[in-house]
Design a protein that fits this description.
The complex is a heterotrimer of chains A (587), B (107) and C (209). Chain B is mainly alpha-helical and 107 residues long. Chain B has helices at 16-40, 48-67, 75-105. Classes of the chains: A mainly alpha (587), B mainly alpha (107), C mainly alpha (209). Bound molecules: protoporphyrin IX containing FE (HEM) and copper (II) ion (CU).
């Protein structure tokens, strides 16, 4: 590639190197996958993985804002000890709606079905996923499950919490549990289909030279996630089926009055639902690995360990589910095993945090918006993980079970971690997906606002949880009010931070400046094709002859002045391995 | 691909085994079914469950190996099938850690 | 003749590779099905361990004759299905077609027998509600599993029948060979449903008798 002269060594202001926006006439979307038919039917019948990714993105965005609206209402309600808006029953229903929607209809599918669908074939140099029709089918199955669940919501919703514990869900609850459970059952098959497709694709369709240990970490993350999806989701399906069998057909499977065991439901449920948190966080780890490497212009530190760590998380994650049941009456011997395994599973996560940090070391770091989100992920994930260790130790968990401490913990992982990473990835690949750059200033502002709003919302919950504020209550003793007010105020900030991207990203689809193939100067095959990519992804299938993340020469740190900035790869499309030898201007 | 792969297995078979091979297995499966039913009425005591299930597992293995052709499948496919069973064993083993030791605490 | 797919679909460029990927993918799905049923078996055997006499009391009420006939039907159908796949490979399309219809017929037969059995069960008050006929409450749980497991298995069988009908139509239209991938996947699915039945049968009809 031709050397783009770098400006004076300092990470140039991103705007400096942008081509001026070319109005709204989209010139470089010509010939891209966006142009392959614009009728509604051409979208609804598409088997192009990129378009399916877009379809999924639209669907889960709707659910994100549905779940978010419920959260906002709850938080607003909790400004005062008596509650501002509704009674306990409505609160329970909103809480359940929020949990169910956020988990199964937003976070589990979020990164895999959008960024994963879009990028996986691009990253391995394939023309599509192995089974394009299956991919489309998975979206329709998702819609079917979503329709059932929305139907349940419209008919009055559920009040069991997203965990559907028996016997409340089977015998006592007077809400739409059956339909919702069927919706979750159905949506599970969409997950499984995606998992099958991804695994087969990674095994079968890698481009020539793309060996396993040359795969970008995002691909590894998708692979590990898919393994968990395929092996865990069926057990959720069966727990939902047994639930329906008991509730609707009167099969006394968990009925303690006859000798059944409600804990059996919890075991089956958590056999899925703990690994499910890794379904939610492994993709995030993949995104963050990509973004941090490019944002620091550094080769990933300990690539192989990153891979092993993800596989270890995917595997060991199956042995810890009982840490959700420490106070349920499960055998204390089992609890000890689960507690121990939970400590074990933290090790690979810690390795990853260590490696991200080490990747930053001596890097040329630029705080572009994706990088801010990604660094936010690392910090919040670390807090979430450490409090997770606290919860894994039985004595502490007995104290804080079912308090806001737990709520804060899992929101740090799921919202602070995964959703931040999702936004990091969305911004980072936005130019690839749309061919346009988002407005950097707004994006940085939103990213920082998100970080503060998030901590503002959820940190007080650690404190009040530790002091004994139980979760899932519509009213609370007034001594906790200060924390609730803090948390609810933070939630309002957070809401703004989530709404902002919706606005400016939508704006940029039409008005954002055009970008070249490789605006970040990143490695990776997805940057070697047009932005946005043509329907067949690559004119000719690329041949891979180098390891990933070659941002600088082995054994050296990137030169001062090589920081990422937009417009870097303007002509040639990417920093090719050879180009690292170029002389960069002295600062 | 990076290195040229071994071509997948050829199932090429003389046409006699089109029927004969599966037929033998079929006869075996039916014989095992008869045996398993017979065993049910023998006074085997506590071993009976294990015996019944053992026969069923032999039947299932035959199906897996011959009808589903795991015997000639690629290593990858064998691994996949094994993974299903191994993960199932996780559910059984770790799940039982609770159910089997709970009576030791509260009889 | 090597095992290659009949017709290539995007994004594959090699029939051998496509076949390999198809078989691999369907096996991943089957592994996942194994876990779906496995969850029920786990629950069953855990409960049985705790309530052995109640469960075995329940098992004595299941109808061994119907169960055995059905097992034989499914084993035979698997045999036919397996012949269908192999016949297609050696280009004996007519034999393949016959076998597909035989498989289908046996599957329908299974559902018929199952239906008769259900009727009889209902007649004997084996639906586990309050009119349930059995002294030990755990027997009621046993029948909770009986209905759930057999019903979910039948649903799988029904789906398998759908796929078989599709194959049958293809065979009629003489396009089966082009769709050999479908033959392969359908038959793997069908066999798995039969394997599961073997376990269901042993669990509900044999171990407790
Ligand atoms: C992807 C994003 C999110 C996910 C996956 C998520 C997940 C969950 C889950 C699983 C629950 C438990 C529900 C239950 O107990 O049944 C929950 C509760 C809750 N979440 Fe979220 N959540 C997300 C975002 C948010 C946000 C942004 C807020 C605040 C603005 C929030 C506020 C709450 C509140 C107030 C509760 C109820 C706590 C309680 O009463 O126990 N959540 N969330
Ligand atoms: Cu967990």
């Amino acid at each position: 590639m031709t050397d783009t002269p770098l400006q004076g060594g300092v990470p140039a202001s991103p705007r400096a190197t942008e081509r001026p926006a070319a109005g709204h006439a989209s010139t470089n979307r010509e010939g891209s996958f966006w142009q392959e038919g614009s009728s509604v039917w051409s979208w609804l019948s598409t088997v192009d993985h990129k378009r399916i990714g877009v379809l999924y993105a639209i669907s889960i965005t709707i659910f994100f804002f549905l779940g978010g609206a419920a959260a906002g209402l709850m938080r607003f309600h909790l400004f005062t000890p008596q509650g501002l808006l509704f009674g306990a029953d409505t609160y329970n229903r909103l809480m359940t709606l929020h949990g169910v929607v956020m988990v199964w209809f937003f976070l589990v599918p979020s990164i895999p079905t959008t960024l994963g669908n879009f990028l996986l074939p691009l990253m391995i140099g394939a023309r599509d996923l192995a089974f394009p029709k299956l991919n489309l089918m998975s979206w329709y199955v998702f819609l079917a499950g979503a329709a059932l669940t929305v139907l349940a919501l419209l008919m009055g919703g559920m009040d069991t919490g997203w965990t559907f514990y028996t016997p409340f869900s089977t015998i006592y609850s007077n809400s739409m549990v059956t339909i919702a459970a069927l919706g979750i059952f159905v949506v599970g098959f969409s997950s499984i289909a995606t998992g099958v497709n991804f695994i087969a694709t990674v095994h079968m369709l890698r481009a020539p030279g793309m060996t396993w240990f040359r795969l970008p970490l995002f691909v590894w993350a998708m692979y590990a996630t898919s393994l968990v999806m395929v092996l865990a989701t069926p057990v959720l399906s069966v727990s939902m089926l047994l639930l329906v069998a008991e509730r609707f057909f009167g099969m006394p499977i968990f009925d303690a009055r006859l000798g059944g065991d409600p804990l059996m439901f919890q075991h089956l449920f958590w056999f899925y639902s703990h690994p499910a948190v890794y379904i939610m966080v492994l993709p995030a780890m993949g995104v963050v690995s990509e973004v941090i490497a490019v944002g620091a212009r550094r080769t990933i530190f300990g690539y192989a360990f990153m891979v092993y760590a993800m596989l270890a998380i995917a595997g060991v994650g199956f042995f810890v589910w009982g840490h959700h049941m420490f106070v349920s009456g499960q055998s204390p011997y089992a609890s000890i095993v689960f507690s121990f395994m939970s400590f074990v599973v933290a090790v690979p996560s810690a390795i990853k945090v260590f490696n991200w940090t080490a990747t930053l070391y001596r890097g040329q770091i630029t705080f572009a918006a994706p990088m801010i989100y990604a660094l936010g992920f690392v910090g919040l994930f670390t807090i979430g993980g450490l409090t997770g260790l606290m919860l894994a130790s039985i004595p502490i968990d007995v104290h804080v079970t079912d308090t806001y401490f737990v709520v804060a913990h899992f929101h740090y992982i799921m919202v602070g971690g995964s959703v931040s990473a999702f936004f990091a990835g969305l911004h980072y690949w936005w130019p690839k997906i749309t061919g346009r750059m988002y407005p950097e200033g707004w994006a940085r502002f939103a990213a920082i606002l998100l970080f503060f709003g998030f901590n503002f919302t959820f940190f007080p919950q650690f404190v009040m949880g530790y002091m004994g504020m139980p979760r899932r209550y519509a009213h609370y003793p007034s001594e906790f009010q200060i924390y609730h007010v803090l948390s609810s105020s933070g939630a309002m900030i957070l809401a703004v931070a989530y709404l902002l991207p919706l606005g400016y990203l939508a704006w940029s689809i039409r008005y954002g400046p055009h970008v070249s193939k490789n605006p970040w100067g990143a490695t990776g095959l997805e940057w070697r094709t047009e932005s946005p990519p043509p329907k067949e992804n690559f004119k000719t299938i690329p041949v891979v002859d180098n390891d990933p993340y070659q941002y600088h020469q082995k054994g050296q740190a990137p030169q001062h002045g090589e920081a990422m900035h937009r417009g870097q790869g303007e002509e040639g499309g990417g920093v090719h391995p050879g180009s690292q030898t170029r002389q960069s201007e002295p600062a | 691909m990076a290195s040229p792969r071994k071509p997948p297995q050829l199932y090429e078979a003389p046409s006699s085994t089109v029927i004969l091979g599966p037929a033998l297995v079929w006869v075996g499966l039916l014989a095992l079914l008869a045996a398993n039913i017979g065993l049910t009425f023998l006074p085997l005591g506590r071993a009976k469950t294990a015996v019944n299930l053992g026969v069923a597992i032999v039947q299932a293995s035959l199906m897996f190996a011959v009808f589903m052709r795991l015997n000639r499948a690629s290593a990858l496919v064998k691994l996949t099938a094994a993974a299903g069973l191994v993960w199932l064993s996780f559910l059984f083993l770790i799940g039982s850690a609770d159910f089997l030791t709970r009576p030791m605490i509260s009889p | 003749m090597s095992q290659a797919s009949g017709v290539l679909h995007e994004p594959f460029t090699s029939g051998v590779r496509q076949r390999e990927a198809t078989i691999f993918a369907i096996w991943i799905f089957l592994a996942s099905e194994l876990l779906l049923f496995g969850g029920m078996f786990f629950a069953f055997y855990t409960y049985r361990h705790a309530h052995t006499s109640g469960f075995d009391g329940g098992a004595r009420h299941t109808n061994l004759l119907f169960g055995a006939i059905n097992t034989a039907l499914l084993l035979t159908s698997s045999f036919a299905m397996s012949v269908a796949g192999r016949a297609l490979e050696v280009k004996r399309a007519a034999l393949a077609e016959v076998c597909i219809w035989v498989t289908l017929a046996l599957g329908v037969g299974f559902l018929g027998v199952k239906g008769l059995e259900y009727v009889q069960d209902l007649h004997e008050h084996l639906w586990p509600n309050t009119r349930f006929d059995g002294a030990d409450p755990a027997s009621r749980i046993f029948f909770g599993f009986y209905w759930t497991m057999t019903f979910i298995h039948s649903c799988h069988l029904l789906i398998g029948l759908g796929f078989l009908i599709r194959l049958g139509i293809m065979a009629r239209a003489r396009v089966l060979e082009a769709n050999s991938d479908s033959v392969e996947t359908t038959s793997l699915y069908w066999h798995l449903v039969d394997v599961i039945w073997i376990m269901v049968f042993t669990t509900l009809y044999l171990v407790g008798k």
